[in-house]
Amino acid sequence: MTTHVVNPYDVAVAQFDEAAERLGLSQAMRAILRKPKRELTVNFPVRMDDGRVEMFTGYRVQHNINRGPAKGGIRFSPEVSLDEVRALAMWMTWKCAVVGIPFGGAKGGVLCDPHYMSPGELERLSRRYTTEISVLLGPNSDIPAPDMNTNPQVMAWMMDTYSMHQGYSVPAVITGKPLAIGGSEGRLEATARGVRVITREAIRMLDMLPESCSVVVQGFGNVGSITARLLHEMGCKVVGLSDISGGVYNPEGIDVPLALRYSKEHGQLYGLPGAQMITNQALLELPCDILVPAALENQLTGENAGRVKARLIIEAANGPTTLEADRILNQRGVTIVPDILANAGGVTVSYFEWVQDLQHLFWTEQEINQRLEEIMTRSFVAVREKAQEQATNLRMGAYLLAVARVAEATEIRGVYP
Ligand SMILES: NC(=O)C1=CN([C@@H]2O[C@H](COP(=O)(O)OP(=O)(O)OC[C@H]3O[C@@H](n4cnc5c(N)ncnc54)[C@H](OP(=O)(O)O)[C@@H]3O)[C@@H](O)[C@H]2O)C=CC1
Ligand SMILES: O=C(O)CCC(=O)C(=O)O
Predict the structure, then answer these.
(1) Ligand that comes closest to the CA of residue 77
(2) Which family does this protein fall into (predicted)?
(3) Out of 37, 107, 177, 386, which one is annotated catalytic?
(4) Residue 263 Cβ < 6 Å to ligand 1
(5) How confident is the model at residue 31 (pLDDT cuts 50, 70, 90)?
Protein backbone atom coordinates (compact mmCIF):
# COMPACT_ATOMS: atom_id res chain seq x y z
CA MET A 1 0.00 0.00 0.00
CA THR A 2 1.40 3.43 -0.96
CA THR A 3 1.15 5.99 1.83
CA HIS A 4 2.37 9.53 2.35
CA VAL A 5 3.88 9.86 -1.12
CA VAL A 6 1.79 13.01 -1.31
CA ASN A 7 1.65 15.49 1.58
CA PRO A 8 -2.01 15.45 2.79
CA TYR A 9 -1.80 19.09 3.87
CA ASP A 10 -0.93 20.10 0.29
CA VAL A 11 -4.01 18.18 -0.86
CA ALA A 12 -6.23 19.88 1.77
CA VAL A 13 -4.95 23.37 0.92
CA ALA A 14 -5.32 22.82 -2.85
CA GLN A 15 -8.92 21.65 -2.37
CA PHE A 16 -9.64 24.73 -0.27
CA ASP A 17 -7.94 27.05 -2.79
CA GLU A 18 -10.16 25.80 -5.61
CA ALA A 19 -13.30 26.39 -3.54
CA ALA A 20 -12.08 29.83 -2.43
CA GLU A 21 -11.44 30.77 -6.04
CA ARG A 22 -14.88 29.62 -7.17
CA LEU A 23 -16.51 31.47 -4.24
CA GLY A 24 -14.52 34.62 -4.99
CA LEU A 25 -13.29 34.91 -1.38
CA SER A 26 -11.15 37.92 -0.56
CA GLN A 27 -7.40 37.40 -0.25
CA ALA A 28 -7.66 38.19 3.49
CA MET A 29 -10.32 35.52 4.01
CA ARG A 30 -8.29 33.00 2.03
CA ALA A 31 -5.24 33.74 4.17
CA ILE A 32 -7.24 33.21 7.37
CA LEU A 33 -8.85 29.93 6.31
CA ARG A 34 -5.74 28.45 4.71
CA LYS A 35 -3.80 28.16 7.96
CA PRO A 36 -4.51 26.33 11.21
CA LYS A 37 -5.37 28.65 14.09
CA ARG A 38 -3.34 26.80 16.72
CA GLU A 39 -0.76 24.01 16.65
CA LEU A 40 0.69 22.30 19.69
CA THR A 41 3.58 19.83 19.55
CA VAL A 42 4.29 17.88 22.72
CA ASN A 43 7.21 15.61 23.60
CA PHE A 44 6.58 13.53 26.67
CA PRO A 45 7.99 10.52 28.56
CA VAL A 46 6.18 7.24 29.15
CA ARG A 47 7.45 4.43 31.38
CA MET A 48 7.38 1.16 29.43
CA ASP A 49 6.65 -2.22 31.04
CA ASP A 50 10.37 -3.17 31.10
CA GLY A 51 11.20 -0.07 33.18
CA ARG A 52 12.68 2.02 30.33
CA VAL A 53 11.47 5.57 29.81
CA GLU A 54 10.62 6.27 26.18
CA MET A 55 9.94 9.71 24.67
CA PHE A 56 6.88 10.18 22.42
CA THR A 57 5.81 13.06 20.19
CA GLY A 58 2.20 14.14 19.79
CA TYR A 59 0.24 16.95 18.18
CA ARG A 60 -3.06 18.76 18.55
CA VAL A 61 -4.01 21.17 15.79
CA GLN A 62 -7.07 23.45 15.77
CA HIS A 63 -7.79 24.65 12.27
CA ASN A 64 -10.77 26.93 12.83
CA ILE A 65 -13.16 27.69 15.71
CA ASN A 66 -15.42 30.34 14.24
CA ARG A 67 -18.50 28.08 14.08
CA GLY A 68 -17.99 26.49 17.51
CA PRO A 69 -15.53 24.56 19.68
CA ALA A 70 -12.72 22.67 17.95
CA LYS A 71 -13.73 19.05 17.27
CA GLY A 72 -11.86 16.06 15.90
CA GLY A 73 -10.35 12.69 16.63
CA ILE A 74 -7.04 11.45 18.01
CA ARG A 75 -4.91 9.11 15.90
CA PHE A 76 -2.18 6.78 17.22
CA SER A 77 0.13 5.71 14.40
CA PRO A 78 3.84 5.47 13.59
CA GLU A 79 3.10 7.50 10.44
CA VAL A 80 1.53 10.53 12.12
CA SER A 81 3.09 13.85 11.06
CA LEU A 82 2.29 17.48 11.80
CA ASP A 83 1.22 18.04 8.20
CA GLU A 84 -1.08 15.02 8.33
CA VAL A 85 -2.72 16.36 11.50
CA ARG A 86 -3.01 19.83 9.93
CA ALA A 87 -4.81 18.35 6.92
CA LEU A 88 -7.12 16.24 9.08
CA ALA A 89 -7.94 19.31 11.23
CA MET A 90 -8.82 21.37 8.16
CA TRP A 91 -11.03 18.58 6.80
CA MET A 92 -12.83 18.52 10.19
CA THR A 93 -13.68 22.24 9.83
CA TRP A 94 -15.32 21.65 6.43
CA LYS A 95 -16.95 18.38 7.58
CA CYS A 96 -18.72 20.00 10.54
CA ALA A 97 -19.83 22.88 8.30
CA VAL A 98 -21.12 20.60 5.52
CA VAL A 99 -23.45 18.76 7.90
CA GLY A 100 -24.31 21.97 9.75
CA ILE A 101 -23.20 21.08 13.27
CA PRO A 102 -21.82 23.88 15.48
CA PHE A 103 -18.16 22.89 15.70
CA GLY A 104 -14.86 24.01 14.30
CA GLY A 105 -12.16 21.59 13.20
CA ALA A 106 -9.27 19.97 15.06
CA LYS A 107 -7.27 16.75 15.04
CA GLY A 108 -4.62 15.12 17.21
CA GLY A 109 -2.09 12.36 16.86
CA VAL A 110 0.70 10.55 18.64
CA LEU A 111 3.62 8.85 16.88
CA CYS A 112 3.44 5.33 18.27
CA ASP A 113 2.45 1.83 17.21
CA PRO A 114 -0.28 0.54 19.53
CA HIS A 115 0.00 -2.94 17.91
CA TYR A 116 3.29 -3.29 19.84
CA MET A 117 2.24 -1.72 23.14
CA SER A 118 0.69 -3.37 26.20
CA PRO A 119 -2.62 -2.04 27.61
CA GLY A 120 -0.67 -0.52 30.53
CA GLU A 121 1.75 1.30 28.19
CA LEU A 122 -1.16 2.53 26.09
CA GLU A 123 -2.98 3.83 29.16
CA ARG A 124 0.10 5.70 30.43
CA LEU A 125 0.69 7.17 26.96
CA SER A 126 -2.96 8.26 26.59
CA ARG A 127 -3.02 9.88 30.02
CA ARG A 128 0.27 11.71 29.60
CA TYR A 129 -0.66 12.95 26.10
CA THR A 130 -3.99 14.24 27.49
CA THR A 131 -2.20 16.10 30.27
CA GLU A 132 0.21 17.66 27.76
CA ILE A 133 -2.55 18.92 25.44
CA SER A 134 -5.00 19.79 28.27
CA VAL A 135 -4.13 23.49 27.87
CA LEU A 136 -6.26 23.36 24.73
CA LEU A 137 -9.01 20.96 25.84
CA GLY A 138 -12.39 21.71 27.38
CA PRO A 139 -16.09 21.13 26.66
CA ASN A 140 -16.34 24.67 25.26
CA SER A 141 -12.96 24.83 23.57
CA ASP A 142 -11.68 21.55 22.13
CA ILE A 143 -13.34 18.12 22.26
CA PRO A 144 -11.38 15.05 21.03
CA ALA A 145 -12.86 11.74 19.82
CA PRO A 146 -11.58 8.43 18.40
CA ASP A 147 -9.78 8.04 15.07
CA MET A 148 -7.38 5.37 13.76
CA ASN A 149 -6.08 3.06 16.50
CA THR A 150 -7.96 4.79 19.30
CA ASN A 151 -11.22 3.51 20.79
CA PRO A 152 -13.75 4.04 23.63
CA GLN A 153 -11.23 2.77 26.23
CA VAL A 154 -8.66 5.38 25.16
CA MET A 155 -11.41 8.02 25.29
CA ALA A 156 -12.28 6.88 28.85
CA TRP A 157 -8.64 7.32 29.97
CA MET A 158 -8.51 10.75 28.32
CA MET A 159 -11.78 11.90 29.89
CA ASP A 160 -10.68 10.59 33.30
CA THR A 161 -7.30 12.35 33.09
CA TYR A 162 -8.87 15.69 32.16
CA SER A 163 -11.48 15.26 34.93
CA MET A 164 -8.77 14.45 37.53
CA HIS A 165 -7.14 17.82 36.80
CA GLN A 166 -10.49 19.62 37.18
CA GLY A 167 -11.47 17.76 40.36
CA TYR A 168 -14.85 16.66 39.00
CA SER A 169 -16.20 14.64 36.04
CA VAL A 170 -16.30 16.45 32.71
CA PRO A 171 -17.90 13.96 30.30
CA ALA A 172 -18.51 16.60 27.58
CA VAL A 173 -14.76 17.09 27.03
CA ILE A 174 -14.44 13.86 25.02
CA THR A 175 -16.83 11.97 22.74
CA GLY A 176 -16.76 8.34 21.66
CA LYS A 177 -16.67 7.31 25.34
CA PRO A 178 -18.10 4.06 26.72
CA LEU A 179 -21.81 4.29 27.61
CA ALA A 180 -21.06 3.87 31.34
CA ILE A 181 -19.40 7.29 31.55
CA GLY A 182 -21.62 9.43 29.34
CA GLY A 183 -21.04 7.93 25.91
CA SER A 184 -23.85 7.97 23.38
CA GLU A 185 -25.89 5.14 22.00
CA GLY A 186 -24.90 4.61 18.39
CA ARG A 187 -21.50 6.41 18.41
CA LEU A 188 -19.49 3.24 17.79
CA GLU A 189 -21.43 2.52 14.60
CA ALA A 190 -22.11 6.14 13.65
CA THR A 191 -19.47 6.71 10.99
CA ALA A 192 -20.42 3.50 9.17
CA ARG A 193 -24.13 4.24 9.56
CA GLY A 194 -23.52 7.59 7.92
CA VAL A 195 -21.57 5.87 5.15
CA ARG A 196 -24.52 3.53 4.61
CA VAL A 197 -26.99 6.43 4.27
CA ILE A 198 -24.66 8.23 1.86
CA THR A 199 -24.10 5.07 -0.20
CA ARG A 200 -27.84 4.49 -0.43
CA GLU A 201 -28.41 8.07 -1.63
CA ALA A 202 -25.54 7.89 -4.14
CA ILE A 203 -26.84 4.56 -5.50
CA ARG A 204 -30.25 6.19 -5.97
CA MET A 205 -28.70 9.20 -7.69
CA LEU A 206 -26.97 6.88 -10.18
CA ASP A 207 -30.15 4.84 -10.78
CA MET A 208 -28.52 1.71 -9.40
CA LEU A 209 -30.02 -0.84 -7.01
CA PRO A 210 -28.23 -2.13 -3.89
CA GLU A 211 -28.94 -5.76 -4.86
CA SER A 212 -27.12 -5.32 -8.16
CA CYS A 213 -24.06 -3.60 -6.64
CA SER A 214 -20.78 -5.31 -5.81
CA VAL A 215 -18.70 -3.60 -3.13
CA VAL A 216 -15.03 -3.54 -2.08
CA VAL A 217 -14.06 -2.11 1.31
CA GLN A 218 -10.45 -1.26 2.19
CA GLY A 219 -9.78 -1.25 5.97
CA PHE A 220 -11.54 -3.48 8.49
CA GLY A 221 -11.43 -1.38 11.65
CA ASN A 222 -14.25 0.60 13.23
CA VAL A 223 -15.39 2.23 10.00
CA GLY A 224 -14.56 -0.46 7.42
CA SER A 225 -15.85 -3.53 9.24
CA ILE A 226 -19.18 -1.98 10.26
CA THR A 227 -19.63 -0.45 6.78
CA ALA A 228 -19.08 -3.89 5.22
CA ARG A 229 -21.72 -5.37 7.52
CA LEU A 230 -24.26 -2.60 6.91
CA LEU A 231 -23.82 -2.66 3.10
CA HIS A 232 -24.11 -6.47 3.16
CA GLU A 233 -27.34 -6.07 5.19
CA MET A 234 -28.56 -3.48 2.64
CA GLY A 235 -28.36 -6.18 -0.05
CA CYS A 236 -25.05 -5.30 -1.72
CA LYS A 237 -22.63 -8.11 -2.63
CA VAL A 238 -19.36 -7.51 -0.76
CA VAL A 239 -16.61 -9.04 -2.91
CA GLY A 240 -13.42 -7.61 -1.38
CA LEU A 241 -12.19 -6.65 2.10
CA SER A 242 -8.80 -5.79 3.58
CA ASP A 243 -6.84 -4.88 6.67
CA ILE A 244 -3.14 -4.24 7.22
CA SER A 245 -2.42 -7.96 6.57
CA GLY A 246 -3.75 -7.71 2.99
CA GLY A 247 -6.93 -8.23 1.02
CA VAL A 248 -9.43 -11.06 0.57
CA TYR A 249 -11.54 -11.51 -2.58
CA ASN A 250 -14.45 -13.63 -3.69
CA PRO A 251 -16.28 -12.55 -6.86
CA GLU A 252 -19.32 -14.58 -5.74
CA GLY A 253 -19.55 -12.59 -2.50
CA ILE A 254 -17.79 -12.78 0.84
CA ASP A 255 -19.67 -14.13 3.85
CA VAL A 256 -19.37 -10.85 5.82
CA PRO A 257 -20.58 -12.22 9.20
CA LEU A 258 -17.93 -14.97 8.84
CA ALA A 259 -15.27 -12.36 7.98
CA LEU A 260 -16.20 -10.40 11.12
CA ARG A 261 -15.91 -13.52 13.29
CA TYR A 262 -12.69 -14.62 11.58
CA SER A 263 -11.05 -11.21 11.98
CA LYS A 264 -11.99 -11.14 15.68
CA GLU A 265 -10.64 -14.65 16.30
CA HIS A 266 -7.43 -14.35 14.24
CA GLY A 267 -6.70 -10.63 14.56
CA GLN A 268 -6.58 -10.37 10.75
CA LEU A 269 -8.51 -11.19 7.57
CA TYR A 270 -5.57 -13.02 5.99
CA GLY A 271 -6.52 -16.71 5.62
CA LEU A 272 -10.29 -16.13 5.49
CA PRO A 273 -11.85 -19.41 4.28
CA GLY A 274 -13.57 -19.24 0.89
CA ALA A 275 -11.63 -16.19 -0.29
CA GLN A 276 -8.59 -15.54 -2.43
CA MET A 277 -5.69 -13.63 -0.78
CA ILE A 278 -4.66 -10.46 -2.63
CA THR A 279 -2.62 -7.35 -1.88
CA ASN A 280 -4.11 -4.05 -0.74
CA GLN A 281 -3.04 -2.54 -4.07
CA ALA A 282 -4.82 -5.24 -6.09
CA LEU A 283 -7.90 -4.78 -3.89
CA LEU A 284 -8.34 -1.18 -5.03
CA GLU A 285 -8.35 -2.30 -8.67
CA LEU A 286 -10.88 -5.16 -8.32
CA PRO A 287 -13.90 -5.29 -10.61
CA CYS A 288 -16.77 -3.83 -8.54
CA ASP A 289 -19.46 -1.15 -8.65
CA ILE A 290 -18.62 0.58 -5.37
CA LEU A 291 -15.21 1.09 -3.74
CA VAL A 292 -15.10 2.22 -0.11
CA PRO A 293 -11.62 3.22 1.07
CA ALA A 294 -11.82 3.09 4.90
CA ALA A 295 -8.17 3.05 6.00
CA LEU A 296 -5.58 5.74 5.24
CA GLU A 297 -4.86 8.82 3.13
CA ASN A 298 -3.35 8.66 -0.38
CA GLN A 299 -4.66 5.25 -1.44
CA LEU A 300 -5.99 6.31 -4.83
CA THR A 301 -3.11 7.97 -6.63
CA GLY A 302 -2.07 9.12 -10.09
CA GLU A 303 -0.46 5.71 -10.45
CA ASN A 304 -3.50 3.46 -9.83
CA ALA A 305 -6.51 5.74 -10.55
CA GLY A 306 -6.57 4.74 -14.23
CA ARG A 307 -7.03 1.08 -13.24
CA VAL A 308 -9.82 1.56 -10.67
CA LYS A 309 -12.90 -0.29 -11.97
CA ALA A 310 -15.53 1.04 -9.55
CA ARG A 311 -18.18 3.39 -10.82
CA LEU A 312 -18.80 4.93 -7.41
CA ILE A 313 -16.24 5.73 -4.68
CA ILE A 314 -17.43 6.48 -1.16
CA GLU A 315 -14.59 8.08 0.83
CA ALA A 316 -15.11 6.63 4.31
CA ALA A 317 -11.45 7.37 5.15
CA ASN A 318 -10.15 10.92 5.35
CA GLY A 319 -8.13 11.98 2.32
CA PRO A 320 -7.90 8.62 0.47
CA THR A 321 -7.70 10.30 -2.97
CA THR A 322 -4.77 12.44 -4.12
CA LEU A 323 -5.36 15.48 -6.33
CA GLU A 324 -3.97 13.65 -9.35
CA ALA A 325 -6.22 10.63 -8.76
CA ASP A 326 -9.22 12.90 -8.26
CA ARG A 327 -8.57 14.51 -11.64
CA ILE A 328 -8.17 11.15 -13.42
CA LEU A 329 -11.24 9.59 -11.80
CA ASN A 330 -13.39 12.63 -12.59
CA GLN A 331 -12.24 12.55 -16.21
CA ARG A 332 -13.17 8.87 -16.34
CA GLY A 333 -16.68 9.67 -15.07
CA VAL A 334 -16.29 7.93 -11.70
CA THR A 335 -18.58 9.44 -9.05
CA ILE A 336 -16.75 10.25 -5.79
CA VAL A 337 -18.59 11.09 -2.60
CA PRO A 338 -15.99 13.11 -0.67
CA ASP A 339 -14.76 12.32 2.83
CA ILE A 340 -16.06 15.55 4.35
CA LEU A 341 -19.59 14.34 3.57
CA ALA A 342 -19.28 10.54 3.42
CA ASN A 343 -17.72 9.99 6.86
CA ALA A 344 -19.46 12.83 8.71
CA GLY A 345 -21.76 10.44 10.60
CA GLY A 346 -19.11 9.96 13.29
CA VAL A 347 -18.77 13.59 14.24
CA THR A 348 -22.53 14.06 13.92
CA VAL A 349 -23.19 11.50 16.66
CA SER A 350 -20.25 12.97 18.60
CA TYR A 351 -22.22 16.21 18.50
CA PHE A 352 -25.25 14.34 19.88
CA GLU A 353 -23.03 12.85 22.63
CA TRP A 354 -21.69 16.31 23.57
CA VAL A 355 -25.22 17.78 23.71
CA GLN A 356 -26.45 14.86 25.85
CA ASP A 357 -23.49 15.21 28.25
CA LEU A 358 -24.05 18.97 28.59
CA GLN A 359 -27.77 18.57 29.30
CA HIS A 360 -27.37 15.35 31.37
CA LEU A 361 -30.27 13.86 29.42
CA PHE A 362 -29.78 10.89 27.14
CA TRP A 363 -31.56 9.79 23.97
CA THR A 364 -32.41 6.29 22.82
CA GLU A 365 -30.48 4.56 20.04
CA GLN A 366 -33.55 4.92 17.84
CA GLU A 367 -33.62 8.70 18.38
CA ILE A 368 -29.90 8.95 17.65
CA ASN A 369 -30.10 6.90 14.46
CA GLN A 370 -33.15 8.79 13.22
CA ARG A 371 -31.49 12.20 13.77
CA LEU A 372 -28.31 10.93 12.11
CA GLU A 373 -30.28 9.63 9.14
CA GLU A 374 -32.02 13.01 8.75
CA ILE A 375 -28.79 15.03 8.86
CA MET A 376 -26.89 12.75 6.48
CA THR A 377 -29.74 12.57 3.94
CA ARG A 378 -30.33 16.33 4.06
CA SER A 379 -26.58 17.02 3.69
CA PHE A 380 -26.27 14.66 0.72
CA VAL A 381 -29.18 16.36 -1.05
CA ALA A 382 -27.72 19.83 -0.34
CA VAL A 383 -24.31 18.78 -1.72
CA ARG A 384 -25.84 17.14 -4.79
CA GLU A 385 -27.95 20.24 -5.51
CA LYS A 386 -24.99 22.59 -5.04
CA ALA A 387 -22.87 20.44 -7.37
CA GLN A 388 -25.64 20.44 -10.01
CA GLU A 389 -26.26 24.17 -9.67
CA GLN A 390 -22.54 24.95 -10.06
CA ALA A 391 -21.96 22.28 -12.75
CA THR A 392 -19.24 20.64 -10.67
CA ASN A 393 -18.60 17.34 -8.88
CA LEU A 394 -19.76 16.31 -5.40
CA ARG A 395 -16.40 17.13 -3.76
CA MET A 396 -16.51 20.71 -4.99
CA GLY A 397 -20.23 20.92 -4.16
CA ALA A 398 -19.42 19.95 -0.55
CA TYR A 399 -16.50 22.39 -0.40
CA LEU A 400 -18.56 25.26 -1.79
CA LEU A 401 -21.22 24.73 0.87
CA ALA A 402 -18.77 24.23 3.73
CA VAL A 403 -16.25 26.96 2.95
CA ALA A 404 -19.03 29.51 2.38
CA ARG A 405 -20.51 28.68 5.80
CA VAL A 406 -17.16 29.02 7.58
CA ALA A 407 -16.31 32.22 5.68
CA GLU A 408 -19.71 33.69 6.58
CA ALA A 409 -19.16 32.93 10.28
CA THR A 410 -15.67 34.42 10.08
CA GLU A 411 -16.89 37.54 8.30
CA ILE A 412 -19.84 38.13 10.59
CA ARG A 413 -17.67 37.86 13.71
CA GLY A 414 -15.41 40.53 12.26
CA VAL A 415 -12.20 38.69 13.03
CA TYR A 416 -9.98 40.94 10.93
CA PRO A 417 -10.57 44.54 12.08
N1 LIG B 1 -13.52 6.28 13.80
C2 LIG B 1 -14.27 7.27 13.33
O3 LIG B 1 -15.29 7.61 13.92
C4 LIG B 1 -13.92 7.97 12.07
C5 LIG B 1 -12.88 7.55 11.27
N6 LIG B 1 -12.67 8.18 10.07
C7 LIG B 1 -11.58 7.75 9.19
O8 LIG B 1 -11.81 6.40 8.79
C9 LIG B 1 -10.54 5.76 8.54
C10 LIG B 1 -10.46 4.49 9.37
O11 LIG B 1 -10.61 4.84 10.74
P12 LIG B 1 -11.03 3.76 11.85
O13 LIG B 1 -11.85 2.70 11.23
O14 LIG B 1 -11.56 4.54 13.00
O15 LIG B 1 -9.63 3.19 12.26
P16 LIG B 1 -9.28 1.74 12.86
O17 LIG B 1 -7.98 1.91 13.53
O18 LIG B 1 -10.43 1.22 13.64
O19 LIG B 1 -9.14 0.84 11.55
C20 LIG B 1 -8.23 1.12 10.56
C21 LIG B 1 -8.21 -0.05 9.58
O22 LIG B 1 -7.29 0.26 8.52
C23 LIG B 1 -6.38 -0.82 8.42
N24 LIG B 1 -5.07 -0.33 8.01
C25 LIG B 1 -4.19 0.42 8.70
N26 LIG B 1 -3.07 0.63 8.01
C27 LIG B 1 -3.26 -0.02 6.84
C28 LIG B 1 -2.47 -0.23 5.72
N29 LIG B 1 -1.22 0.28 5.63
N30 LIG B 1 -2.99 -0.98 4.71
C31 LIG B 1 -4.23 -1.49 4.78
N32 LIG B 1 -5.04 -1.33 5.83
C33 LIG B 1 -4.55 -0.62 6.84
C34 LIG B 1 -6.29 -1.40 9.80
O35 LIG B 1 -5.77 -2.71 9.76
P36 LIG B 1 -5.39 -3.51 11.14
O37 LIG B 1 -6.69 -3.67 11.85
O38 LIG B 1 -4.83 -4.75 10.64
O39 LIG B 1 -4.45 -2.59 11.86
C40 LIG B 1 -7.74 -1.35 10.19
O41 LIG B 1 -8.45 -2.42 9.60
C42 LIG B 1 -9.47 6.82 8.87
O43 LIG B 1 -9.16 7.52 7.70
C44 LIG B 1 -10.20 7.75 9.83
O45 LIG B 1 -9.64 9.03 9.86
C46 LIG B 1 -13.46 9.19 9.63
C47 LIG B 1 -14.50 9.63 10.39
C48 LIG B 1 -14.77 9.13 11.72
O1 LIG C 1 -16.23 12.31 16.29
C2 LIG C 1 -15.48 13.26 16.17
O3 LIG C 1 -15.48 14.23 16.90
C4 LIG C 1 -14.46 13.31 15.05
C5 LIG C 1 -14.26 12.05 14.28
C6 LIG C 1 -13.13 12.25 13.33
O7 LIG C 1 -12.01 12.36 13.75
C8 LIG C 1 -13.39 12.40 11.91
O9 LIG C 1 -14.54 12.63 11.51
O10 LIG C 1 -12.42 12.33 11.12
Answers:
(1) 1
(2) Belongs to the Glu/Leu/Phe/Val dehydrogenases family.
(3) 107
(4) no
(5) very high
| Ligand 2 atom closest to Cα of residue 318 | 10
Q: Is 130 annotated as a binding residue?
A: no
Domains of the chain with CATH codes: 10-19+26-170 (3.40.50.10860), 189-337 (3.40.50.720)
Residues facing 60 on adjacent strands: 40, 108
Question: Which residue's C-alpha comes closest to atom 6 of ligand 2?
Answer: 73
Distance 307 CA to ligand 2 centre (A): 30
Q: Which amino acid residue places its CA nearest to atom 8 of ligand 1?
A: 317
Residue closest via CA to ligand 2's atom 9 equals 347
User: What type of residue is 289?
Assistant: D
Model pTM?
Answer: 0.97
To 10 degrees, what angle do helices 345-359 and 365-389 make?
130
Active site residue 107: yes
Indicate if the pLDDT at residue 415 is higher than 80: no
209 CB-contact burial (10 Å; exposed 0-12 / middle 13-18 / buried 19+): exposed
Distances (CA, A) of 29 to 34, 90, 99, 214: 8, 15, 22, 43
pLDDT confidence band for 416 (50 / 70 / 90):
low
Q: What is the pLDDT of residues 306-347, one digit of tens each?
A: 999 999 999 999 999 999 999 999 999 999 999 999 999 999
Residue 20, CA atoms < 13 Å, CB-side half-sphere: 19
Closest listed ligand to the CA of 176: 2
Give tens-digit pLDDT for 183-226. 999 999 999 999 999 999 999 999 999 999 999 999 999 999 99
Residue 275 has φ and ψ, to the nearest 5°, of -135, 155
